[in-house]
Amino acid sequence: MSYISLENITTPYCLENVNLNIEAGEIMAVLGFTGAGKSTLLNVIAGLTEYKGDVYFNQNNMNHIRTERRNVGYLLQDIYLFPHLNTFDNIAFGLRAGGYPDDEIKEKIDSILHLLNITHLKKRYPKDLSGGEKQRVGLARSIIIEPKILLLDEPLSSLDPSTARSIRKELKVLQKRLNLTILYVTHDFAEAKELADRIVVITEGQIKQLGSVHDIFNLPAEEIREFISAAISV
Amino acid sequence: MSYISLENITTPYCLENVNLNIEAGEIMAVLGFTGAGKSTLLNVIAGLTEYKGDVYFNQNNMNHIRTERRNVGYLLQDIYLFPHLNTFDNIAFGLRAGGYPDDEIKEKIDSILHLLNITHLKKRYPKDLSGGEKQRVGLARSIIIEPKILLLDEPLSSLDPSTARSIRKELKVLQKRLNLTILYVTHDFAEAKELADRIVVITEGQIKQLGSVHDIFNLPAEEIREFISAAISV
Amino acid sequence: GCSQSTAPKESASAQNATSEKDISLDVAVEYTDHAAAFYYAQGKNLFSGTGIKINDVKVYASGVGVAAAFTKGGFDVSYMCLVPAIFTYANGGVPIKIIAGTHKNGYGLIVNSAKIQELSDLEKTGIKIANGPEGTSTDFLQKLLIENKNIDSEKIMSNTVRMNAAKQLMALRSGKVDAIFVPEHFATLAASFPSMKMLLKSTDIWPDMQGSVLVVTEELLKNQPETVEKLKEINKNSIQLMNENPQAAAEIVAQNLNINQMMVKEETQSPEANLEVTSEIAAASMNNLIMTPEISIEEVQAVIDKMYAMGYLTKSFDAKEIMAVD
Amino acid sequence: MIEDKGDQLEMKQNILKNNLLHLLPITLFLVLWEIAGQTAQTPLFPPLSKVIEAFGSLLRNGMFLKGIVASFGRVLIGYILGSSAGLFVGIIMGVNKTAERSLRPLISILFPIPTLGWLPLLMLWIGINEALPVALIFICAFFPVSYNTLTGIKEVKEEYIKAARTLGASSWYTLWHVILPMASPNIFTGLRLESGMVWRTVIAAEMFAIPTGIGALLMNAESLIRVDVIMVCLVVLSIMCSTFERFFLWLERRTTGAWR
Amino acid sequence: MIEDKGDQLEMKQNILKNNLLHLLPITLFLVLWEIAGQTAQTPLFPPLSKVIEAFGSLLRNGMFLKGIVASFGRVLIGYILGSSAGLFVGIIMGVNKTAERSLRPLISILFPIPTLGWLPLLMLWIGINEALPVALIFICAFFPVSYNTLTGIKEVKEEYIKAARTLGASSWYTLWHVILPMASPNIFTGLRLESGMVWRTVIAAEMFAIPTGIGALLMNAESLIRVDVIMVCLVVLSIMCSTFERFFLWLERRTTGAWR
Ligand SMILES: Nc1ncnc2c1ncn2[C@@H]1O[C@H](COP(=O)(O)OP(=O)(O)OP(=O)(O)O)[C@@H](O)[C@H]1O
Ligand SMILES: Nc1ncnc2c1ncn2[C@@H]1O[C@H](COP(=O)(O)OP(=O)(O)OP(=O)(O)O)[C@@H](O)[C@H]1O
Ligand SMILES: [Mg+2]
Ligand SMILES: [Mg+2]
Question: What sequence ranges are listed for the domain ABC transporter (chains A, B) (predicted)?
Fold first, then answer.
């Protein structure tokens, strides 16, 4: 069985009977128009929204496991760094909530700050960070708790192309190193193409197509042809 | 004598002994780094700042004429549309202050709204306008009072290239139609080149060079060579 | 001490359970010579011989103060004016019984004779009248006066400001008000100030109206009927003795009023109110009271009915409910 | 169609449920009050029914309505005078540096004095008459309104004024058509906050000094131990105050809602 | 160098000139006060010198300091109790829907009642003792603080809470480390605004009911027609109130200044 398994997922406002399997260590891109249900799908996996159906992680049913125990790293669509905490404390949040000792926290954070090249931002508050800097801090915050699953909701949408490119590279490296299973929401087909092993296309709360980048590019299903060609032309 | 004449202008914080003559119907671009004194120069002409020296319009000394009687159209650096007035009332402001009758105001505004292609924005408040739309409304507001002199402080800086291009065209048309004398502040050499008859380059409160676009491009004075090459490369 | 901030004490009955002999009582009195019967009894040690120990005496600026304090309990006995006693029972729901009277009459309207010569002058604009808080006997009398003499109620009431008797005297003396409605001994004292005169006595409004009464809690009456009898007896004796020796009575009363002045000053926030009472004033004042333990149910009923008619009470009731006289 | 009907039904049930849930606690509270009052059997804690009864009989008795009208009149007059004067002084200070420099230190001493603190002084200066509560409310409204007006004017960026002047507007025209409208959100906030405060002030003045109005009614009820009347007065006060404040909120939204 | 010196001199002259300009009006005011007072020769309008004299003799007299301390103590105790309770109830309402639904209608009725309106009721319920002003101040602080706390909590976007939960934080941890810190600006605003109000309340209670404290001093001075003493009290009150408010402003800046 797959690492993440969604069976017959239905949510009050959006998803209808969604079935999806994601393998361990895979990067799966989630594509779809605004309002299609991409964020909702991620919320189901993180346990942040009500749903009917079953969610399995590594064959364990997670339906009654609360968000804080699912150990899922989640970079929300607008990041939501805590405004009252500086970079260090934002990243430390999850570790402190988990009761780690201070010196261990410091060590872990120093290494991730170094890895993401944001050591110099350590003392700054979110209001003093640029969009790209916030994105990196958010990423650091969600992976420092060492989740097996990482959910990224349009993490690069507000960045200029060159910054986006460099973060994409770092992400690939991280994913390899930590053997993460990643769901990656994006509007941008080129981005999906560059990062993902497989792509799932959602429209109006339903999965319209699932396959490798190559398959989707070359053989888009009837109802999503228009979407794919629009996404490519951007 | 020229249409606008500045003689020995010195301001408390910035300009030093500036002499400048601008001919009637001319578009003069004002170039210079941030903090060079470009906005200050415009403020002197509009009578919005203290200065020593003399300002002549059409050979009349304006030193003791207050701003509201100088009849200078001025599009400030950040436009400053009145937030409590909608587009129509913003544009009508100068006419109402001048005591024009309502029907005449309506007529004038309808024609300028049409000219600048913003009739559909008539009822909107500034908070609901995009940057480019604000710029057009601001322009309309400053030219509807039919000034002979128009001061524009980086009017196109915050616009995407294609919008900027179309406003530049409209401006040329307007200038011809109303026989305006325009001082046009910009950071962008290309913009200056496209619009202006002559260019004046200011650094550190002093005029470093004054000449036709061609002259300045080919024979920049020693101390502004670096500036020009930087401005061109942008 | 005599401050008001003490918590309700154990009731007399509870204490009685432990010691049959020594009955200690908490007493509330008004700071006027209306309480003369109490002051005199205490001064002449009339209580001690009977096995009653006066545990705590609290002195209040007006009957309204006694009434409000009664609602929180803590007293067994009170010497208070009839009008506040009635609404303590009716509005405050405090189960009390009137066991005797102490005097009739004893209120007066004192005016600044420079400004006011006759009753109709009270209606003039710019005249300021002071009276005690709503529900005091003087307030009741003022309303009666308006009714009886056909004075413009609207004008008078909006000219009337409320303050306690000590403050009324100060205000009259400093010219801030032109007329005051106060109980004795304040009435006589105020009339003794230069250019002030007593325009009306309460007898002119309601002849021989029941003034103050001796009140006990129903609980005391139920559990200690013999103590209540003793209290009545002491009251009767005290009044009789005072009527026989008015001069000696005046001295004791004056002395008591001056002792209590300090606490009342504190309670009424008027440290400046130096209202020293000489024995002459006390004597003159007590002359205006008819001191008698007698009290008639009809008289009390008349007051109750009048209070109901004037809106002090939401419903009328039978005077017998509140009386436990022989 | 059938599904639609079902949905509608469900929706209706939800609405009912939500409203009932909203009403339940307050109903429960009222019922508990009634029961507790009935059980306690002391006039110090009258049951709801007695308070409603008292309200009824107060309404029939002219005194009560007259008291409300008296208080309302004082609030209105004092508030209108005080806030007009506050606006005026605030504007003067906002447009004239000398006026600002002269008045600011004075105002910054007088502003923090609790309004009621003025009562003793005014009792001596004015005496006890209708002018007293009006003067108190005047003070209560004056300082915050002038302060907020000044702040509002100072917060108008100079560039807007410059823009107005290049468009040919005189200082006067600019004041009326640029500065004041742009300062109005701040001014309205001041007016609204004070609209609640003036009620506190008038109540206090009436409790103390002036023998008419709701405050005097409250004090009389206290001395007569009429807790039911006190409670009626408090409910009426609550309604008056919140109506007053809501009026200003509405005014604020109406005048500046479109452009903010 | 010479030019530099000249500049410095000019700057100094400017500073002097500006400061003098600032001091001039208030000095003028004080001088005028003195002259007017001396001329008027009425105790209703004492000259500045008499007020200062009165201040001196009040300071020597223990009563005055005792009054200030009494008022201050009441404010402190009532304010600490009231705002703690307000915080507590506000938090409960903020995190628990049922609590909010139950309490909100009640609070929205009780909140607008002018604090002083409670005085007659409390006089009957509590009696006239130290608990009375404390209870009044409690009410004065409780409602606005609970209301602002609730508002502050409601304004924390749900997404921050979601983010905290995905990071493994329990509800309790989230409350303490996300919700409350983020609500704190609102909470502090409530605390600060009330810190001025409680002074108004204590003054009123002391003027009316409790015979000690600055309020009582004021009333006594009124009946003694000691305008000089009244003025001293008012200035002291002004200082106390603004110090209190400034303290909260400082606290607000200190705790939330870095990140807002
Ligand atoms: N609580 C809710 N109440 C009402 N509608 C909701 C709610 N939650 C989600 N929806 C609706 O569900 C749909 C899917 O929302 P979702 O956020 O998953 O879209 P998305 O694919 O992430 O869009 P975007 O690209 O804009 O982020 C939207 O139409 C949204 O309006
Ligand atoms: N009132 C003032 N006080 C102090 N310095 C001033 C003042 N007015 C202008 N200056 C200074 O004068 C210099 C010129 O300002 P000006 O606004 O004219 O520059 P600019 O060329 O328009 O720059 P930009 O391209 O950023 O708009 C700046 O260094 C500015 O700091
Ligand atoms: Mg989304
Ligand atoms: Mg500029």
Answer: 4-229
